[in-house]
Amino acid sequence: MAASERTPLLVNSVEQKSPDPTTPKSPTGTAEFSFKRVDRRKKFILVSMGFVNFCASCCFSLLAPFFPIEASYKGASQSVVGLIFGVFELVIFISSPIFGNYISKIGCKFMFVSGIMVCGSCAILFGTLDKGPDGTMFIVMCFLCRSIEALGCSAFVTALFAILAHEFPDSVITVMGSLETFSGLGMMVGPPIGGALYEIGGYGLPFFVMGTVVILCGLLTTLVMPRIEGAKEKYTGSILTLFKSPLVIITWLNCIITSLSIGYFEPTLANHLQQFDLKTWIVGLMFLIAPAVYAFTAPVWGYIGDQKGIVRLMIGGGNLFAVLAWLLLGPAPFLTFIPNTLYINIISLSMIGLGIGCSLIPTFKALLIGANSLGLPNDLDTYGKVSGFFNSSFSFGAFFGPTIGGVMVEKFGFPWASTGIAWMLCFGGGLMLIYICVVPNLPKLPEETPLDTNINIENATVDNKILPSSDVETTLLNSNENKYTIDKETPVDQHAIQNKSDCEV
Q1: Which stretches within 127-171 are classed as H helix?
Q2: Pairing of strands 483-485, 476-478
Q3: Which of 128, 365, 393, 442 is deepest in the core (most CB within 10 A)?
Q4: pLDDT tens digit string along 13-42?
Q5: Which long-range contacts (CB under 8 A, 24 or more apart) does 14-20 make?
Q6: How many CB atoms lie within 10 A of CB 434?
Q7: Quick check: 393 and 255 in contact, CB under 8 A?
Q8: Would you say 353 and 297 are in contact if contact means Cβ atoms under 8 Å apart?
Q9: pLDDT tens digits, residue range 41-94?
């Protein structure tokens, strides 16, 4: 079977069912995703993940307005504070592939819930650090708390992406885009919430409140989220096997460059905006422009990626579109006809949010397609490996982005540094477009046996014995290649067919 961006992921899921002929189809041949049409079980999964994403993102970002000031009182320099922020992404970069490699052994739901609980607990502990001694002890405790919190974040995010691929194989990008809206909103409102709680109750209150909320999210998820069943046969290879796919390598480079460009903002944008004599709260709003555009357009990019099937084109085109935005932001020294005004900066930040969303949202599915092209089985173990790989790649860029950005601005100035980021994006996007031209059709995927929907309820045979119709509806038909569930709630075609296969209830 020839693979392309229009090819839905192949799934040996126990929940695979006969397609509903009334469900609208996209040009890719897959059913269009609708929250109303998914079953109750998957609705619980989506609601749980959306709420957790929002609360966890708030918890991760709430310390930005006040922690640097408090840390300076405790004897931490600005560079040390930057490392405390950066170690979070560094730990995720290192640990995500490990969690992804062992997700099927640890358990997907357990990893998800335990990661949430670790994040909430570490947030509460972080709120007590102002009571400890100043100097080295304070710095060491900050690094420890932030690192363990990053381990929790790595665990639950890796499990989250794996669950998405497992439960929504034909709508991975759509669902991911929707959940990214919750993450983006959490990152946006986290600093204002942290600042407000800090004004009300001091250093500890923001961490105590949001940490408690995150722990409650974990407890609620334990009760609400159904069990995630994985495949019995597990792939035992290394996660480095993914690098055998050219699509994975090029997508990996684009993911790193995109996340690096996001991290570039943190230490550089505020100083660049000083020339406009803006008030502090307006500068804060300027920081929110790109994330806000990204958050609110993420579902749109997800829908386009799933229904139009242009994953590689979106990655390459999104980064090339962002090139123009970065050239405007400086503006680039050779674009002398573009004025360096506030409205030009607002337009460029909005364009950056659009381009990054278009490029980043389809990345996960592109990696899955690359894994499939290598012959990796379509089960929870593979989804975990790809999820850890994706999470690690993004964190790698997010860790080095602020560091590289600060050095580039200090050495060359903001206009030339922004131009350098533009050329990085141009390299990644151009490489993907060249790959599309060279390889218009992706390598062949393993063949799958189509789901036979013509099962005779009245005369199904099991081991050459007639099975009563009441038992057929609750029987798992297990052939040599595929396993399918006939659910009581799923209508079954009444046309007769004798299916001689081993069946397990």
Answers
A1: 136-167
A2: antiparallel
A3: 365
A4: 333 344 444 444 444 444 555 656 777 777
A5: 14/229, 14/476, 14/483, 14/484, 14/485, 15/167, 15/485, 15/487, 16/451, 16/484, 16/485, 17/484, 17/485, 17/487, 17/490, 18/451, 18/453, 18/490, 18/491, 18/492, 18/493
A6: 12
A7: yes
A8: yes
A9: 777 778 878 888 888 888 888 887 778 878 888 888 877 877 888 888 889 989
Burial status of residue 160 (CB atoms within 10 A of its CB: 0-12, 13-18, 19 or more): buried
DSSP string covering 169-212, please?
A: TTSHHHHHHHHHHHHHHHHHHHHHHHHHHHHHH-SHHHHHHHHH
Comparing C-alpha atoms, which of 186, 193, 85, 183 is closest to residue 139? Answer: 85
Q: What is this structure's pTM? A: 0.71
505 to 232, 354, 405: CA distances (angstroms): 16, 49, 59
Residue 421, helix vs strand vs coil? helix
Q: Are the C-beta atoms of residues 364 and 220 closer than 8 Å to each other? A: no
Answer yes or no: are the C-beta atoms of 146 and 84 closer than 8 Å: yes
Helices (H) and strands (E) in the chain, counts: 16, 5
Is-contact 263 413, C-beta < 8 A? Answer: no
Rg, C-alpha atoms of the chain: 25
Euclidean distance between the first and final Cα of the chain, in Å? 31
Give me the amino acid identity at 53. Answer: N
Q: Which residues pair with 478 in a beta bridge?
A: 483, 502
Distance CA 173, CA 5 (A): 12
Contact 239, 101 (CB under 8 A): yes
- The CA-atom distances, in angstroms, between 261 and each of 201, 332, 399 are 35, 16, 11
Give the Cα separation of 449 and 441 in Å (integer): 21
HSE toward the beta carbon, residue 89, CA cutoff 13 A:
21
For residues 318 and 332, give the distance between their C-alpha atoms in angstroms, rounded to a whole number.
Answer: 20
Q: If you average pLDDT over every residue of the chain, what do you get?
A: 76
